Fold:
Amino acid sequence: EIVLTQSPGTLSLSPGERATLSCRASQSVTSIYLAWYQQKPGRAPRLLIYSTSSRATGIPDRFSGSGSGTDFTLTISRLEPEDFAVYYCHQYGRSHTFGPGTKVDIK
Amino acid sequence: QVQLVQSGAEVKKPGASVKVSCKASGYTFTGYYIHWVRQAPGQGLEWMGLINAYSGGTNYAQTFQGRVTVTRDTSVSTAYMELSSLRSDDTAVYYCARPRTTVTHDVFDIWGQGTMVTVSS
Structure:
């Protein structure tokens, strides 16, 4: 099973700041099989990024993804108030596994 | 619009079974897989299994092998997830999700609203 590790566990930032979230895999993940989701309390996850860097429909361009092999990154260029949430990475090439999440909260 | 609507919250005793439904609308049900993902309180996401809504073929995470059964009824565009031998650590929100496309390996872009299952004596 591919294990995903996310860091940091919590990121405390102010609106307008840049957020950089990391996802590391226990073995190489083909880049077309790495995604990111946003989840707010009491809500289902929302797809942000698939295939490492493709934005899902309706996702603003302040969200971007990059990476390859075992190291992937989600960047939010300028945090908006609605961006404070938990973010999960997901590999879907060999079965499905999710990272433990990074919480982005207001500093 | 494309949506998945799940059945309501359940409270079960340890050792019992629970069956959660997921009704699809707005697209051709048999054209896509349906996946099940759960989330324990305050925890992350855990993939449980999938069903090919066309063929009925299933694939389950090893963690749940022997305890989970996913079925579908194409006449009502509904998938079902049954989990047996419930334990307290099965207390979680259970989500159904549809992949973005019809390919075998894809992300989940449509999610049900979630069904809270509480296991308590």
User: Anything to note?
Assistant: The radius of gyration of chain B is 14 Å.
